[in-house]
Specification:
This protein is 28% helix and 23% strand. With 241 residues, it is an alpha+beta fold. The strands form four sheets. Strands 2, 3, 4, 6 and 8 form a five-stranded antiparallel beta sheet that branches.
């Protein structure tokens, strides 16, 4: 009987120790985060949602209480709450960002990218600027983040879904051709008037009113001389009478 009691006691102690160790393992195991990014449809033929690469940069930590703290190197003392505060924080982080990305993921045909196994922290997520989709605004994501519970207080969430702001990339300006065309050349009202032709006999610029060729000048001189001879002949006849 005594031997049986010792055996049962030993089994009980082993069970308690096993349960304690198993429970400790469960509590200490930190859940990994997951970030899903979904691109919206820009409704343009030049936008391709496939293959847009997003890079993940660690820029802060999340305390055990769930409070997010951005690295002081970025000059942000408080975690942003409003959209305007987030936009300003993203600009500061982008300007001071250094180091390599912790992870990256590319979008599929539907425009969805998934980053799995993300450790606790604050992350700056930026899309590759040379993508064929458009201009994508960077994201600021906290893992985990706190949400209000139903009757049991706040609880932490390790999965984030985000849709970044995006817009169509403006078209590239056309390269000017080597031959420049004067703007007035296509408009009939801007055709310049022809300059007045020069008078070949007098050297004076002005409108031409008759034939000023040398032949016409010679003809006038002959006619004038003939009239002068006739007049002189008649005059001499009168004097002789």
């Amino acid at each position: 009987m005594k031997k049986m009691m010792n055996t049962l006691l030993s089994m009980l102690i082993c069970t308690v120790l096993f349960s304690t160790c198993f429970g400790a393992t469960t509590v200490c195991a930190a859940p990994s985060g997951k970030i899903e990014i979904q691109l919206k449809d820009l409704n343009t033929a030049h936008s391709n949602k496939t293959g847009v690469t997003f890079k993940l940069y660690l820029v802060g930590t999340v305390l055990d209480s769930g409070e997010p703290v951005i690295d002081p190197v970025y000059g942000i003392t408080e975690y942003p709450v409003t959209a305007d505060e987030t936009e300003q924080a993203v600009k500061k982080i982008k300007a001071a960002l250094t180091g390599s990305a912790q992870a990256s993921a590319a979008t599929d045909a539907s425009g969805k990218a998934v980053l799995s196994g993300v450790a606790d922290g604050i992350y700056y997520i930026a899309a590759d600027e040379s993508n064929g989709y458009g201009i994508v605004e960077p994201l600021l994501v906290q893992i985990p983040y706190s949400v209000e519970g139903t009757g049991e207080g706040n609880h932490l969430v390790w999965e984030v879904s985000a849709e970044p702001k995006a817009s169509e990339r403006p078209p590239k300006p056309e390269k000017p051709s080597g031959h420049k065309k004067h703007p007035s050349s296509d408009h009939p009202d801007n055709v310049p008037a022809s300059s007045p032709e020069a008078d070949t006999t007098t050297g004076i610029n002005g409108p031409r009113t008759g034939d000023n060729s040398p032949l016409a000048g010679y003809a006038i001189m002959i006619v004038s001389a003939s009239l002068l001879i006739i007049w002189l002949t008649g005059r001499m006849k009168k004097l002789r009478e």
